[in-house]
Specification:
47% strand, Neuraminidase, mainly beta, 5% helix, 4-stranded antiparallel sheet, 28 strands
């Protein structure tokens, strides 16, 4: 563990498959929940129909999965008959529209992340060790034929990895990724994730780092990131909710940063539709909390709050993954894909 005491949310912690499917279909709390917002509109959290992820062959098991900027599922599958090979598939609703075969990686462990990237894919593992002989190369880029075209070190303690359609790779880090572990910071160099959020290009070189304003301007609000709890990347912006003060941090494509005070401690997923925002999660009795509000230049105006009753306890080695992209919350576990959407409508 890192030296700092941060109540971490590890990638993959979340809901149990059977319980979540049951809740998504049967629970009254999964009916649309909403709030009145400005200009006579209404914002709702609406559950979508569950989808089954389709394997390339019947001997495949899931290794890692994520959601792209268009809210399509991307899955890495291990082959039971060919343990040296992985398959990467893309699926929209119930249609698999791409499958690429590539070499299986033998990384040291951790959660696996995958994103489409300019006709190929970026695949990374959350763990990365530094040794005197050098650091693990914990990310690769493969082309549309499965051939490796780049490999690099993007740091350990990864909680989120999301790419844009322009090829920008955004990474959000845990406290270990910020403060160091597995040789990073001591005796090794500073971590890749020292500021909690970073962006990499298609060669896996870092081209942008979050730099807290409060370190440069003593009069600025506190905005140091000890852990990136929530990250949501669209083609226009990246939005995060971070420990310790849980502001909403918005980063536009040019790297300009806006920090808004919110104070919803423990929020671990965030959805956006224009300036309408929904925060999910919290500590203790607030783990099922949903808060809907509106972003403005000076902060965040809460418009309504409710609960989405789902079982968050991991069981039976199933490690569900939650991914927020734009206005859609996605939950992936084994072959189950559950979805909830933030919808903004004229007030009924």
């Amino acid at each position: 563990m890192a030296d700092s005491e941060v109540p971490s949310r590890r990638h993959g912690e979340g809901f149990h498959l059977e319980s979540a499917v049951k809740a998504a279909r049967l629970s009254d709390s999964n009916r649309p929940f909403g709030a009145a917002i400005s200009s006579g509109r209404h914002a709702e959290i609406v559950p979508l129909d569950p989808v089954t992820l389709v394997p390339p062959t019947d001997d495949c098991s899931t290794v890692g999965y994520s959601i792209d900027v268009d809210n399509h599922a991307t899955v890495v599958w291990a082959s039971g008959r060919r343990p040296d090979r992985w398959y990467v598939s893309r699926q929209r609703e119930r249609e698999v529209f791409e499958v690429v075969e590539t070499a299986a990686r033998t990384w040291r462990g951790g959660a696996l992340f995958v994103q489409p990237l300019l006709g190929g894919f970026v695949i990374a593992t959350s763990d990365c060790e530094w040794r005197p002989t050098g650091a693990d190369r914990n990310a690769v880029i493969i082309d549309g034929h499965g051939r490796e075209i780049a490999a690099g070190t993007i740091g350990g303690g990864i909680l989120h990895l999301q790419a844009t359609s322009a090829g920008e790779i955004w990474v959000g880090y845990s406290d270990e990724g910020v403060y160091g572990n597995h040789g990073w910071n001591h005796p090794g160099p500073e971590t890749q994730g020292r500021w909690g959020i970073a962006r990499f290009d298609t060669s896996l070189s870092k081209d942008w780092d979050y730099a807290p304003r409060s370190l440069r301007d003593p009069g600025a609000p506190e905005d140091v990131v000890s852990e990136c709890y929530a990250l949501n990347v669209t083609d226009d912006r990246a939005i995060a909710c971070t420990y310790t003060d849980f502001p909403i941090i918005q980063i536009d494509r040019g790297g300009d940063v806006t920090v808004r005070r919110v104070g919803k401690e423990g929020a671990d997923n965030i959805l956006v539709d224009g300036q309408v925002c929904a925060l999910f999660g919290g500590y203790g009795g607030d783990q099922n909390r949903v808060t809907i509000g509106e972003l403005h230049e000076g902060g965040f105006d809460e418009r309504g709050a409710g609960k989405l009753q789902l079982d968050r306890r991991p069981r039976d080695e199933l490690r569900p993954v939650f991914v927020s992209r734009g206005n859609q919350l996605n939950r992936l576990c084994d072959r189950s894909w559950l979805r909830w959407r933030l919808e903004v409508k004229p007030k009924p």
